[in-house]
Specification:
The chain is an alpha/beta fold. The protein folds into 2 domains: 3-31 and 287-396, Aspartate Aminotransferase, domain 1; 58-283, Type I PLP-dependent aspartate aminotransferase-like (Major domain) (Aspartate Aminotransferase, domain 2). Helices cover 36% and strands 15% of the residues. It has 12 helices and 15 strands. It has helices at residues 3-10, 32-49, 53-56, 62-70, 87-101, 116-129, 170-179, 270-280, 288-308, 310-315, 338-347, 371-387, and strands at 13-14, 20-21, 30-31, 81-84, 107-111, 135-139, 152-158, 183-187, 206-210, 223-227, 316-318, 330-335, 350-351, 353-355, 359-363. Strands 4-10-9-8-7-5-6 form a 7-stranded mixed β-sheet, sandwiched between helices. Strands 11-12-15-14 form a 4-stranded antiparallel β-sheet. α5 (87-101) crosses α6 and α9 (288-308) runs parallel beside α12 (371-387). The longest helix is centred in the C-terminal third of the chain and has 21 residues, at 288-308. The chain is globular, with a radius of gyration of 22 Å. The chain starts with a helix and ends in a 15-residue tail after the last helix. The chain binds pyridoxal-5'-phosphate. Residues 86-88, 115, 117-118, 158, 162, 187, 189-190, 210, 223 line the site of pyridoxal-5'-phosphate.
């Protein structure tokens, strides 16, 4: 894609003037068309159709139709993704289904140091079903071997590490898990929309993801669950009426719907799903390989600027791999005073985030970030460190969300 085409893409997003938005890895920017689509959904669909909208506007099928929009972005077949609930709940469903499929084994392997909710979900499931049915072990996914997984029913790990931005090799780790007789669940929170992903070709068993990050679905937008066709007969541990084969027959007993629909539980937010549907249409006609190239050129530019700065080299360390093949779509710096510096950056219009203990994440969306954003990020950081502006009392205050 040409620079002009990327500028045209950026113009489809509502980004405040003078703001350098480098946090699309946490919450994606608002596509302008989503704003107008939501006005239509509220005023025409909700106000005008009321309950009949479930049929006339096809609200009932939104979790599947939005899933079908996500499918090409993550290399999955149509009919293998539901968009619903959130990543954590979808992970719980995938973990329980995996234990049932691989029922000669009782061990869930979790990536050591991964985003905590993934381990909490595994621990919660283990305490619910008891130690005879499930235990949890941590593994180092950068060195994981067939031997480490020889008793594992399922391994869950992140495709891109949320702190360091390290990208894992989906194909080869999936092969290791399968060679050990383990299933695998990939957490795509930080890779969906910015990395080429081939869930089907890599023979992944399950995957979970968020739509509020690089897919721009909006704050608190639903998660998604990918279920490989060979596992679509398995059981949803939270079998609600929305996953029933004949939901409006109101039968006393549960009979799972065919296909991935059985992984639905209750009623989903029609407003939230509409926002995701609209935001995903930005991806129509775009090539993920080109978006990946754009993402790499943005992070590479940021890294090159950091490498030219004696000040930043003295004061910070890049914890994100310099090797492109191992880099997601963010650059994380470890440095002293990371929290107040992150607040001073935001105050200067460069929106980043802080992660314990000493990391600032600079996230780059190929859809709307520019090389100039990388330059502004670096120059603002240099001037904040040089002036010690971050020492001001207002930058020491921690809100609930960092
Ligand atoms: C890697 C990773 N996994 C899981 C989650 C949690 O997702 P949710 O709150 O939608 O369940 C996040 C949220 O940021 C995340 O970054």
């Amino acid at each position: 894609m040409t620079d002009e085409q990327f500028a045209q893409l950026r113009s489809q997003f509502q980004i405040p003037e003078n703001m350098v938005y480098l946090d699309g890895n946490s919450l994606g920017a608002l596509p302008k068309m989503t704003q107008s689509h939501m006005t239509d959904v509220i005023s025409r669909q909700w106000a005008g159709e009321l309950v009949t909208g479930w049929n006339t506007c096809d609200w009932i099928d939104l979790p599947l139709s939005v899933g079908d929009q996500i499918a090409p972005i993550v290399g999955a077949a149509a009919g293998s993704i539901v968009c619903c609930d959130n990543l954590s709940i979808n992970l719980f469903k995938a973990l329980a289904a995996s234990l049932e499929i691989n029922n000669a084994r009782t061990l869930i392997s979790v990536e050591a140091g991964q985003f905590p909710t993934d381990s909490y979900m595994a621990q919660g499931l283990a305490s619910l079903v008891g130690p005879e049915r499930c235990q949890v072990q941590s593994v180092d996914v950068d060195t994981v071997t067939v031997g480490d997984l020889k008793h594992s029913a399922v391994l869950v790990l992140s495709h891109v590490d949320y702190k360091t931005g390290t990208l894992r090799d989906m194909g080869s780790i999936t092969k290791v898990a399968h060679a050990a007789g383990s299933l695998i669940i990939w957490d795509l929170a930080h890779s969906a929309g910015v990395v080429d992903i081939s869930l089907a070709a890599s023979e992944v068993d399950f995957a979970v993801g968020c739509t509020y990050k690089f897919l721009n679905g909006g704050p608190g937008a639903p998660g998604f669950l990918y279920v490989n066709e060979r596992h679509q007969h398995s059981q949803n541990p939270l079998p609600g009426w929305m996953g029933h084969a004949r939901l409006f027959d109101f039968e006393a007993d549960y009979d799972a719907a065919p296909g991935v629909r059985r992984f639905l539980t209750g009623t989903q937010s029609v407003l939230a799903l509409n926002a995701v549907a609209s935001s995903l249409s930005v991806f129509d006609g775009l090539c993920l390989t080109e978006l990946r190239q754009r993402s790499l050129s943005l992070t590479a530019h940021f890294i090159a600027l950091w490498q030219k700065s004696a000040l930043l080299q003295g004061d910070s360390v890049i914890v994100t791999p310099l090797d492109e093949a191992k880099r997601g779509s963010q650059v994380s710096l470890a440095l002293d005073h990371a929290f107040p510096i992150s607040q001073a950056l935001i105050d200067d219009g460069v929106v980043v985030d802080f992660r314990e203990p000493n990391l600032i994440r600079f996230g780059f969306s190929p859809l709307y970030n520019t090389l100039t954003d990388a330059e502004r990020g670096i120059s603002s950081l240099e001037s904040i460190i040089t002036s010690k502006q971050y020492e001001a009392p207002q930058f020491q205050i921690r809100s609930t969300v960092t």
